[in-house]
Specification:
The protein is mainly alpha-helical. Helices cover 45% and strands 5% of the residues. It contains seven helices and three strands, in the order αααββααααβ. α5 packs across α6. The protein is globular, with a radius of gyration of 18 Å.
Length: 196
């Protein structure tokens, strides 16, 4: 688990374990880190959801400033404002990449992105069922190859598209960001992403 997601999860874990309602404290010790290290993304999201409910009871707003929620329908079309809202006009491979990062709010290290090849192929197949399996495999393989520039090219297209849909500085909540050696991730809270 990367350090950033680990710290967020640790704070949420501490919040859930604290017995005092209405009190949010920084964890005094990180003695439960081992419990979080083995968690999958789905388990971390469940932890986030439990923490969200607890914070809602405390009337704490978790939404990113200026960020509107995203709504992902069963065909992986990405809507703004509601499931009937405007669809973000992504190219299919770029859309699949965006969905992959939305599914991994903990972030993805670029050097480890090949681990997500099969998952990205599944997403891409759902986004663009008309693309042949050979083309789909070839395009995703190029995207996941650390020696190929395809990832950077598609990331640039993704961020440019988001820049046309959302005004600055709101667009920064949706763009894939990160520094070398650290996970790339979308800063939008996973609680603001709704899946049909």
């Amino acid at each position: 688990m990367n350090q950033i997601a680990g710290i967020e999860a640790q704070l949420m874990w501490k919040l859930l374990l604290s017995g005092e309602k209405g009190l949010l404290r920084e964890p005094a010790a990180l003695d439960y880190v081992g419990m979080l290290e083995g968690m999958e993304a789905a388990e971390l999201l469940a932890l986030v959801e439990m923490a969200r409910r607890r914070l809602a009871e405390m009337e704490v707003d978790l939404s990113a400033p200026g960020a509107t929620d995203l709504y992902i329908d069963r065909h992986y079309r990405i809507h703004t404002t509601s499931f009937e809202g405007r669809v973000i006009p992504f190219r299919p491979l770029v859309q699949a990449l965006f969905i992959l990062f939305l599914k991994h709010p903990e972030g993805i290290l670029l050097k480890d992105r090949a681990r997500f090849q099969e998952e990205l192929e599944d997403i891409y197949q759902r986004v663009a069922p008309h693309v042949s399996p050979e083309d789909r495999c070839r395009r995703v393989r190029r995207l996941m190859d650390v020696q190929d520039n395809s990832f950077s090219e598609n990331l640039s297209v993704l961020n440019a598209t988001l820049g046309r849909v959302f005004p600055p500085p709101q667009d920064a909540n949706y763009k894939i960001r990160g520094c070398n050696g650290h996970p790339r991730r979308i800063p939008l809270s996973p609680l603001q992403v709704h899946w049909e």
